[in-house]
Every structure is written in structure tokens, then in C-alpha cells.
Amino acid sequence: MTWYDSFLQQLVDGLVLGSFYALVALGYTMVFGVIKLLNFAHGDLYMTGAFAGFGGLSLVSGFLGAGWLGIFVAMLLAMLAVGCLGVVIERVAYHPMLAAPRLSILITALAVSLVLQNAALSLTGGQYTAFRTDLGFGGFNLGNLFLSYNQIVLVATAAVLMIALELFVSRTLYGRAMRAVSIDKDMCRMMGINVSAVIAVTFFIGSGLAAAAGTMAGAYYGSIWYFMGFLIGLKAFTAAVIGGIGSITGAMLGGLILGLLESFGTHIPFIGSEWKDVFTFSILILVLVFKPTGLLGKSEVERM
Amino acid sequence: MANRTPTLREDIPRGNVFQRFYASFESPGRRRALHALIVALLIVTPWISSQYVTVILTNALLYVVLCLGLNVVVGYAGLLDLGYAAFFAVGAYTVGILTQQFGINFWAAIPFALLAAAIAGVIIGGPTLRLRSDYLAIVTLGFGEIVRFTARNLEITGGASGLSHIPEPSLFGWQIDSSIDFYYVFALLAVLAYIASQRLFDSRLGRAWLYVRHDEDAAEAMGINRVATKLAAYVIGAIFGAIGGIFFSVNLGAISPESFSFQQSVLILLAVVLGGMGKIPGVILGAFIVVLGPELLRDFDTLRLLIFAVLLLLIMLFRPSGIWPEKRS
Description:
The structure holds 2 protein chains of 2 kinds. Chain A is mainly alpha-helical. Chain A has helices at about 5-35, 40-65, 70-95, 100-125, 150-170, 175-185, 185-190, 195-220, 230-245, 250-265, 275-290; strands spanning about 130, 140, 145-150, 225. Classes of the chains: A mainly alpha, B mainly alpha. The interface between A and B is large, with 43 and 42 residues.
């Protein structure tokens, strides 16, 4: 294999990884946009989504099979369920805390994350759960490059979801309300926008996208466990920061950039795969320190 | 603030039953009596309890040191640190490496460990303290993970299996090796940490933290250098953590990267929040709850972590200032 083929292979791997990051990063960035909260529990919603997708698949595989159709329906079910869970979390945990000091709401978010994680831990006993599907390992060769059908479907699904979100935010009434709420909540109230409803919709969509990513990751990698959301939550946050937190296009871009950086970064001499996570967190810290607004974020006057 | 005692008598009847109960300890005479009682209890306990209880209490006292250290960062300065275990790790690994791999005397290694922790505090704090608080939280989390991954990947730190056979220290011919010896070492450390916390709280720096926590801009307008003040909190917190780590490593004789995971940082933070951020007795209470609670809930196995998580959530929702809240805020 020449360096060029290896380059293409890394590109494909990076795109797949980047799609997961982008889907999860969207939830971070949307929630941050409307209530300025860093939702620590978001990575765990991804994990919950993987388990919900697993449950959904075992529900529908009887008559739809465990192929793409079954996984797709399971993914929709997981998105629905986890979306509702996200709304419940917002209502129960975050809503009463919105006026509290920022430290309190951050710790509340951390607590929600721990509740989800440990609930999954108690239910599974900390074991890996096999996510069995009928997806094969089929694919085709492009020159020396191997593309599996799974990778193509996965990246395409992620792209469709992101395009749908972009259209929703830019074209519909609720999308416009969402953008307005992220700019000035009080003014929105005066203009007759139901701010609570907009926040709920935002949580629903953000959590749903995380669940979609979770289900796809489960189907793609073949196993799920209670701690799978921790690292990806951190990395998706990194992606959201790279793209500029609060910016939806930025989150997509940041996710893809981070996926590609990780995929190529592990092949730089001295970095290697065991330093991959250190590499990612270093990027996070460097971006936050030198360009906290990210690539597409708007600068704002910060108050702690 | 220095002589706030005279008015407190009148405060006692006010508030709910908890507040009255707590306030009843605040007169100087009762405080001194309580301190004497606690010190006496600390001295006597290992002689009347089993070895198992002594070991658990030693662990609780270690957590008292760590929690009081994190309390400086979170409670006093109001900075959310999600990677506090990193400082704990720096202390433990510095001493582990110096004593086990280079054969340096334990006591001679301590200053290096403290220096390393202070430098780590500056490295983490320096560039990040200008960030907004939620960014700071995630950056500290990232740093915590970087430290853990680094410890796992380097050879000098023993990789994933960590360091073992860290020699036990001796002091003037007294070999510190039994569980009771270590119990006393940690009891002494906890008492020192308590005194240091109290002194810091009453100091000029302690008041500066209070102002910065409440209104950064106003504090800066009053001539407080907010970055230097926050950095001081970080470095002091780091040194507390390192002291805990130094003695943790010689107590166990072996350390591994997994002792310093994100869960460790969360557990320490949980204790601080549970007890009452900024309130020293509350934080100590929190440390004991976090260590003794799981021992009491042993039969529940994995459920106990869930119980703790739900407890944290409920505390944040219904009693956000903790079990024993700080009045000054």
C-alpha cells in the first residue's frame, strides 16, 4: 500500500469517527446555545441511546430483521425515547436551576451524568453488551481502498440527519424561535415566544441526535457498555469547541475536523495510538486558550 | 470578620433546627472543647477499634485532606475543578518515582513532590483561569485525563500496572509501617489541613477569594488581582492534593493510574458539595460520608454508586449549599 492509499484509508476512518463526533457535538452546541449550559450528561445520553437502540432492535428484529431496516427503526425508537429523556432531564434537573449560580447548575449536570452512568452500570453489571446485527462486512474496493457498506450508510445517515437539522433550524418557525432564544431569552418572552417549549424542543433534538449516534456506534462497533459515553462526550465537546460552541455548522465542521485529526494524528511519529486521547485533549486546551470562540463561533463578552 | 463571635449568641435562636444545632458549636469555648474532644477521639480510636475500622478511618482521613484541598479551589475561590485527582497523582508519582527508582529518601522527596504539584497547579491554572467557569471545568477534566494517560504510557511511571514496592518511610528510627502508624500520620495531616484551611479562610487571601467568587468585576475594581488570586487557590489546592498523594503512595506501597481516574476526582468533589462548599466542618463531614457510606452500603454492590449519584442530584436540587452550609456566602 502506498502512502496515498493509506492516506485515503485514514480519510475514510476519520470521516466515520467524525460523523459520530459531529452528531454528539450538535447536542452540546444546541443546548449551550439556548441555555448557556455545558450539558455534562450529553455523552451519557449517547450511551443511553446505544442501549435504547439495542432494546429497540431486539423489539423489532423479530419482524424487521436485524439488518439496516431493523437498525433504522430501532434508531428512530431510540431517538424518540432518549429525546423524551432529555426533555425530562431538562424539566426535572436543569429548569429549576437556571437562575442558580453557574457552579450549581454545572454540578447538577455532572450529577445527572453520574445517575445515567451508574444506572446503566447497575443494570448491566459493568459488562460489555454485544450489539448483534445482521450487517455483514461487505463492501467494495476503490483501487486499494476498501469501503464497507456500513461505513457508507453510517456517514450518509449522519449527513441526512445533519442536513435535516440545518433545514429545521434555518427554515421552520421553531428553528427561528430557537435562534432567537439563543440571542435573548427575555426579549423572546416579550415577543410571545414560548421559551420553555423552545428549550424543550432543543433538548429533544439534541438528545435524539446523540441517541442516533449511539445506536449507530453500537451497530458499527458491535458492543456497548455503560462508560462508552464518557470519552466521546469529552471529545464531542472538543469538537463543538473547535467549531465554535453555539454554532450548529461549527459543530458539524468541528466533529469532522476532530475525527480526521485523530485518524491522522495516530500516524504521526511519536504520537501513536496510545497518545491519541492526550493529543485530543491537548487540542481542546489549546483551542480554548488561544481561540475560545472556535472557528465559527461569535465572540461575546464573558461573565463567569 | 476576625472577631465575629460576640454577635453569634443572638443568632442561635434563629433559623431551622439544623441551623440552631450547628450554631450551637460556634461559641469559642464550645469550639475549643469540641476540638479537644475530636483530637482525643482521633488518638484513642485505633486502640479500641479493629484493624479493619482503622484502615477505613485512615482512608477517611486521607479524604479529609483531599477534600479540604479541593474546597480551597471550589468552595473558597468558586472554580469548578473536575481533575483534582491529577494533583493527587503528581504527589504520589513524584514520591513513588524518586524513592523507588532513584533511591532518594522519602523525606527528601517530599519537597520535590510539593514543587511538582505547585508547578502542575500553575501549568493548569495559568492559561485557563481567564476562561469562563464551564470551560475551566472541562479543561481541568481534560488535564486530569492527560495526567492519567501520561502515567499509563510512560515507562518511568510503570505503565498501566503502575509502581509497586514503594519503600515505607522511617522517622528517627521509627519505621512507619503498621496500619496504626499510618492512621496517626493521616490524623496529623488531617488536623494540619484543618488548621491551614481555617487560617486561609480567615486570611486576607480568603476574603479576596470570597469577593472574586461573588463578583469578579467588582473585586477587580476594588484592586484584587483576580488571576493571581485564583492561581493562588489552584496552587494551594494542588499542594493539599499532593500531600494526600505523597502519603497515599507510601501507605499502599503501590500506585497505578486507575487510582487517579475521573471517578476519583468526582468522588472528592461529591464530598465537598455534599458537605457544603466552603464550610470546613461540612467538607470534613462530606469526606466521612463519601468514605464510610460505601462501606455501610456494601451489600448493594453496584447500586451504591447509583445511590450516591442520586443523592448528589437531590442535594443539588433541594439543598444546593450542602448539609452544613457556609453562612458567610
